[in-house]
Request: fold
Amino acid sequence: MKLTRTDVWRGVAILAVFFVLAWLPAVPGADGWLSIVVPITMYTVLATSWAIFSGPTHYVSLATAAFFGVGSYTLALGLESVPYPLLLLMAAVLGGVLAAFVGWATLRLSGVYFVIFTLGLAELIRQVFTWYQNNMGGSRGSYVFTDFTDAHIYWQLLALALLVYLVGWLINRSRLGFAIRIIGGDESVAKHSGINVAWSKIVLFMVSGSVAAVVGAILAPRFVYIEPAMAFNPQLSFMVVIMALLGGTQRLWGPLMGAIPFALVWEIIASNFPAQTTLLMGLAFLLVVFYIPNGISGVLLRWYHQARARQGVSHE
Amino acid sequence: MSNAVLLEVRKVVKRFGGLVAINGVSFDVHEHEVLGLIGPNGSGKTTMMNLISGALPATDGYIAMDDKLLTDLPTRKIARAGIARTFQLVKVIPSMTVLENVMAGAVFGHKKLWGHALAVYAERQLERVGLFGVSHKPTADLTYIDQKRVELARALASDPKVILLDEWLAGLNPTELQTGIELIRSLRDDGRTVILVEHVMDAIRSLCDRCVVMSTGNIIAQGTPADVLADPQVIEAYLGEDYE
Reply:
């Protein structure tokens, strides 16, 4: 694997940006707006990892909440007996295993079944946890007591974001990344080219599921008290899909373009129209699908290509 | 044909529910030959191609290549064993560049290239099928005929032993047809085995070493193109009983 000069410079620039971002909590008065920066970072990580799988395959996964909840509960239930870093690793493994199971069960089927199954999955796991806590656990929820502040959570999310971008970039330039683009283009071409279609999809779905579970684990201390309805909130899955589609899934940086504006707008909506959130979310969905099907990054890329084409003409 | 048998098709049956599309068909394909699979519409030619390439599973019977049983293998393993194909309705990936489409054939299958070597190799396949200077265009921008060429280049990129061409010559104008025929002939000269489903009679006469004629799921004749095309049963299948 060879790195070009552009690759190196891009890498250096991205590291520099992350370095600067890591200093955000040091800005005076940061405590107030970290409460909006943390969700933005969270959604960026979730939407980016969602798009690593769903972007090229066009399989819309609504399982984000399922992975997120599994991660949250891994942390909540293990916090007293297992060291924290190990819990994050466990969340990653459990998220991956769950994704492998879902993938194995559904990815051979067509996209529609997959969507329904993933939506049902979050609900199923939520019910199982509720039942378990009602009948065995004695209480409805679990307390998550740590010394973490928003800044700690933010740094962890930032590190995870960096990891997700690195993994996404590595996948994109790998055979697996090429395979998944072919699969997204035409599955029968993929099979006839010797690609193991099911395996490729499952591996990518596992990456996506692992990341969402780790995000759930990292966020759990922020809730302090978690219960199934919160940890497995289906709204999370829909938010991630809207943000990824708004940003565009053709490039790794696409979902970021959706997560930032949407999380900001959502903050305003949630505080001013708390009763109409679902309605407004549906509306946002329609607007994105109808007016910017390729997302903000798609629009930016089109402008970029048009500008270059115009320059090319003027040079001649 | 003195060449060794490469592909054995034995008593193959394909049913779709109550419909019998292939009704116990057996034939051999020899090494380095161009075999024509012909017959009127709906006779089961494309289904036969789909069974060989593994796009569809056979209901009964078997297909073997070099003593390797293909029938129970998944499509990808059949591809890896060295069988490549084109489709009756062109299947290219429009969002990818022409070069990427061709590269797709040479990464995961019978041939496993990557990086610079892959790009150079794919470029050569494009030249082979007569496509120049379009490598980095989106495949959607190409004409239907050129997309067919891309598809053939992708199939060639896997360096297959057997190549299945499903009406690859259909829709070409007379000049293109001549070039196309030369191209397919050159595949045989490279040592490949070609099975083609075709309706263009000129191509069948000048290209095929042997023909298998199918009608409603059965083989009604086998032999050289001249022989089978003179066979009264074949003429009847194509044109009906009253033809004099």
User: Anything to note?
Assistant: Chain A has a mean pLDDT of 89. The radius of gyration of chain A is 20 Å. Residues 30-57 of chain A form the longest helix (28 residues).
